[in-house]
Each structure stands twice: as C-alpha cells, then as structure tokens.
Amino acid sequence: MKLSRTNKILSKMKEQGINQAIISDPYSIFYLTGHLEHPGERFYAVLLDENGNHKLFVNALFPIENDLGLEKVVYSDTDNPIETLSKVISDGAVVGIDKILPARFLLPLMQYLPNSKFVDVSLIVDRIRMIKDEEEKELMRRASLLNDEACQRVINSITAEKSEKDIVKDLLAIHEDLGVEGLSFDPIIGYGANGANPHGTVGDRYLKPGDSIIVDMGGIKDNYCSDMTRTVFWKQPSPKAREVFETVLEAQKRACALVKPGVRFCDIDAACRDYITEKGYGEFFTHRTGHHIGLECHEYGDISSINETKCEPGMIFSIEPGIYLPGELGVRIEDLVLVTEDGCEILNKLNKELVVIGE
Hints:
Helix content is 33%, strand content 23%. By secondary structure, the protein is α+β, with helices and mostly antiparallel strands. It has two domains: 3-129, Creatinase/prolidase N-terminal domain (Creatine Amidinohydrolase, Chain A, domain 1); 131-357, Creatinase/methionine aminopeptidase superfamily (Creatine Amidinohydrolase, Alpha-Beta Complex), CATH 3.90.230.10. It comes from Gemella morbillorum.
C-alpha cells in the first residue's frame, strides 16, 4: 500500500471517530494500492482498519499476483463475500462507506451488523485525492503535454473533406501513435452551430467557411487523465465570431491569473463569468468554469459560483469558460492548472490564441 496516502485517510478517520472504512471505488483502491481493477457486478473493496489490519476483498476471477502490502481475501462466485466481510468488522463499530458501494452490498452488511453505525467516508477520501502528491503532479504534467501534441495533430488533420466523425477517427489513430492508453472521455468535435451545444454529439457535419471548430479531448497515460479544449476557425471568421473568441480567451486568462492558494473557487468562476457578462454574453455561458481531475476526468470538486472552497497547493482542475450561440457557433478554451505554493502552473502549453485554418 502507499502508506503516506493510507495514513492521511486513517488520520482523518480517527478525527471523525471512524473505526473501519470500506473503500469500493476502483480508482480510490488504485490510489491506495497501485492496483486498478474494474470488477463489474462483483464485490471489490479495501477494508481500512484503525489498527492496521487492512484487507482487500477480491473475486478469484481477478487474480492479483503482486504483493500490495495488505491481506487479500479471495472469494469465489459461490461464496458470500459480505458475510465474510462482516466477520472482520466489530459489531458496534463506526464504519465508513464510500459513495460507490451498491445498496445490494450495503443493505446485507447492515443486517449482519445491526449494532454498527454506518457513515459516509467519501469526503475524507475525495478531499485527500484532491491534493496531488509529487508523483501525481509529474504524471499529470506528462499526460497534459502528450494531450497538447495530440490536439495539435488533430487540428492539423482537419480538412474540408472530413466530417466531425472523420476527425474523431484521426484522433484515435493519433492517440495510438503517441502511446495514449485510452480516452478520458468521449471526444467532442463540434463544427459551427454544433459547437453551440457544449456537449454536442459528433456527427456527419462538414465545414463551411467561417465555422468555429471546438476540439475537446483528453487521454489516459499511466492511469492519469488529461483534458483540454481549443477552438479554431475554418477560413475567415466573422467579426462577431472573433469578438466571441477574444471574449472567451480573455475570460480564461483572467481566471488562470487569479489561481493561487487561498482563492475561492467561486471567485475564479466569477473572474470568467463577470467578464463574459460585461461583454454581453453572460446568458450564453451555460456551465460551471471547471472541474477537478486526476485518476478520473471529473473528480470531486468544481469551480462554480456556489463553491466557496479555497485553492490549496497540489490541486489540479480545469478552467474552461465558453460562449455558445444557438444556431451559430460555440467557443470554449480549456487548460488544466496546478495550484502551486504562490500561484499556479498551467499544464497545457499549446497555443490558445486565435487560429484560422484552411486558408
């Protein structure tokens, strides 16, 4: 197990009077053990114990040969893993349960342990995962730089003869060539009016002169996610399109410049939102400014108007304001930022100034 991470969780559990915790989120298990498994419908969890008697419950279908630093409790499909789990939890203990554990496992466990108290332990784990350690920071830097290169190649691949779907095919081939291990999310390629839907469906659309092109993409490298958006234009953008682009770009730069320890997420959101509103496009910025990222593309925490949480060194999140004009165009610009001791490091280095292609 990764002891520094485990001990942080155990310390917070002790503060809150939690004796044991069942961690069933595969990404949190990877965070603690270095082993990633997707068990489907089968029970898979780490039991963290205040006395150090940690255990990993795993079905025999998923053999783990490596020593993960904790006892493995292996069960078969004909066993009852919840009954086995209940026997290593003291009836009357305060037991932490994460938000991923299905009711089909939790409800029988509660019946086995009628005198135990079950509490949500997710915030403890999520908040610790929010603060990336040095190993994670370096992995996130590498993933983002790889995504920069992939995004530039995708933009270079755009031609009048290619539909949105064709560009996604190019993207997948580029990822394979670069050694990217998978997608952080389904990529978004939005031409013109389709870009006015922030999560528009990729289709058979072809480019028209003046179209905006949203390229929102991310890949997985060494289990960590990248995520970025660039907007470019096909041939000559209209004066209005240029104004929209420059408004989003300035809003994004203002928000990035604000990031440092102690700054509230709602104030970062306001830096984008207030400027876009001042320019007359406030109603067309229809989503939060950003989200946290790491082992998963969307992790706990967001950059929104109602989140008063303050930045801390080690946090990594997106800043991605956008303006979406129905029937016309969409513009979004997104970077990942790492909060440092005295400011922030922007992980994406790819040019985000206005680019016109196809001329």
